[in-house]
Amino acid sequence: MDKQKEILNAALKLFVEFGFHGTPTSKIAKEAGVANGTLFHYYSTKEELILALYKDIKARLTSCMYTNADKDKSLKEIFKTLYINTLEWASDHKEEFYFIQQFHTSPFFSLISSEEIEKQTKPHLDMIQQGIKNKILKPLPLELLFNLINSHISGINQYLSSANLTGQKQKKVINESFDLLWDMIT
Amino acid sequence: MDKQKEILNAALKLFVEFGFHGTPTSKIAKEAGVANGTLFHYYSTKEELILALYKDIKARLTSCMYTNADKDKSLKEIFKTLYINTLEWASDHKEEFYFIQQFHTSPFFSLISSEEIEKQTKPHLDMIQQGIKNKILKPLPLELLFNLINSHISGINQYLSSANLTGQKQKKVINESFDLLWDMIT
DNA sequence: ATCTTTGTAGAGTGATTAGTCAATCTTTAT
DNA sequence: ATAAAGATTGACTAATCACTCTACAAAGAT
Fold this sequence. Notes:
2 copies of one chain form a homodimer.
Chain A: H1 3-18, H2 25-32, H3 36-42, H4 46-65, H5 75-92, H6 94-104, H7 114-133, H8 142-162, H9 167-185
Helix pairs in contact in A: 1-2, 1-6, 2-3, 4-5, 5-6, 5-8, 5-9, 7-8, 8-9
Chain A binds a DNA duplex through α3.
């Protein structure tokens, strides 16, 4: 077992349950089954651990999000693939997805450089811009469309989390809610 | 000046900036211009203060939200009034609105009883149900529509927060985004 | 085999924190 | 005017926390 990963796993679990400052590093170490000092061997401060955890989770989400989003597909198909991938990842990684939201409304979010944020959002903004240029998407402000899509996904995820549906029904909701979104922005 | 209100104001400001556990009660007292003990005179624990602040802000939002939402108006008009009121309140009370989101993705949210939550959401769910019954809204699951509307508002608010528009343009965005939402759910 | 680097441990530390308490001040009721 | 109740203070405390430090073990390189 990789102790560093154990630390990240433990931190995720505890942060989601007790919050960032509500989780002492000592408890993280204990939950991970490592000594106190080991945690600080990998992450020299608690803040560094939090940021590393965020980046790790974000990277895993991004990676999963783009699977099967082949460039030869139509824009709508690509959009839909990203949409479905995101919601299914969220459903399979509830703690991780919750952590991202928790992080975004925490003081730690301001520690992420604007370049880092841009690097993450740029591909999506580019896609949207392309959609507008090709007259597929409505000629609304880029950021507005972006926020609309993101919050729509977040809303559907909240619904799926609260209503415990079977895999079949969940897929149906994801598919139909995509159409709602697509109709709204095209 | 009411010291209790000063404490809530200071707590709001600091919680938004530094997070719940990142803000010591001593700093709240100092920011509020009161002694340490005074804070604990009004709120016997920090947790109690956090919950009181949430309930206070939520009550103010709810109160503002329903102004001019007269019952003789059509459902669409009522929906639109609530929509606009919420977004304008959010724009005029950025810290408060941010605090609500921060609270919802914090461990403290689980301390709000389900009755309290239901009391807050019931009126909205009832309105949606009425809309479905009257065949105005699409026959989608109640909770789905509810989450869709909420997250739509949250998305528009995020856009308005980042794009610093003039009052005029902001009103235009609010109005037009309502139409997008309304078309989606009807 | 020996040296170097890296990983791991856990007791220890100084600073910080939520909450207490006894003393004073202010307001209200009679 | 006086008593009772409530408000305010700030020093104090016991607990907790992030982080350090020294010692030791494991692994890799030469």
